[in-house]
């Protein structure tokens, strides 16, 4: 097959979700992001800690909206974020004088290691990148970034995913743990 012909695709778009599926996804995302952002804005507002990062929005899409995806499973959510956070902090600390290099190394290495460890979670790439390009507040956290906001925030979102996704008789989460 010719290189450009591959870009046409080979199947039709899948059918859209039911309104019930949309409602459950909305509820999960609302509650998950509410819990993390409430903690950020109300419980940690007087500290130097942050609790919410942009990659949690992408995780919400997966763990509340695409719950059957291998990329949305607990192993991937937690492992992908935590591994990527460690890599991002390392790359920032080692290469902060060359931010372009730190950013590229963080994302590429996070993807490679998530593949190797079977924890591929696309928002993990953003988690690694945020560790590099984040604010001074994020940089000041150092490896604490791995625990707060990353592990704690992803853990809160996972608990809510377990609760909300299993309330519907038509949904089951997770597909697998390990």
Gyration radius, in Å: 18 Å
Q: What's the rounded overall pLDDT mean?
A: 96
How many separate structural domains? 1
The secondary structure category is: mainly alpha
Listing every helix as H and every strand as E from the N terminus to the C terminus, the arrangement reads HHHHHHH
Largest sheet: none
End-to-end separation = 37 Å
Helical percentage: 55-70%
Q: What's the total number of strands?
A: 0
**Unreliable segments of 5+ consecutive residues:** none
Q: What's the shape? A: globular
Give me the number of helical elements: 7
Describe this structure in words.
The chain is mostly helical and 178 residues long. It has one domain. It is 65% helix and 0% strand. The protein has helices at residues 19-43, 55-65, 74-95, 99-117, 123-133, 136-141, 144-165. Helix 1 packs antiparallel against helix 7 (144-165) and helix 2 (55-65) packs parallel to helix 7. The longest helix has 25 residues, at 19-43. The protein is globular and about 50 Å long. The model has no long low-confidence stretch (mean pLDDT 96).
How would you summarize the topology of this molecule?
Blueprint: H1 19-43, H2 55-65, H3 74-95, H4 99-117, H5 123-133, H6 136-141, H7 144-165
Helix pairs in contact: 1-2, 1-7, 2-5, 2-7, 3-4, 3-5, 3-7, 4-5
């Amino acid at each position: 097959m010719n290189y450009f012909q591959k870009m046409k695709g080979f199947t039709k778009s899948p059918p859209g979700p039911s309104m019930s599926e949309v409602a459950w996804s909305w509820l999960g995302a609302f509650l998950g992001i509410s819990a993390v952002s409430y903690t950020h804005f109300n419980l940690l507002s007087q500290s130097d800690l942050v609790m919410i990062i942009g990659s949690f929005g992408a995780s919400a899409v997966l763990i509340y909206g695409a719950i059957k995806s291998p990329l949305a499973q607990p192993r991937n959510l937690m492992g992908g974020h935590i591994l990527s956070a460690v890599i991002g902090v390392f790359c920032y600390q080692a290469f902060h004088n060359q931010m372009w290099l730190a950013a590229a190394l963080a994302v590429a290495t996070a993807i490679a290691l998530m593949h190797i460890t079977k924890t591929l979670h696309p928002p993990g790439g953003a988690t690694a990148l945020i560790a590099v390009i984040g604010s001074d507040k994020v940089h000041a956290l150092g490896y604490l970034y791995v625990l707060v906001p990353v592990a704690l925030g992803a853990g809160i979102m996972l608990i809510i995913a377990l609760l909300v996704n299993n309330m519907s008789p038509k949904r089951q989460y997770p597909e697998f743990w390990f």
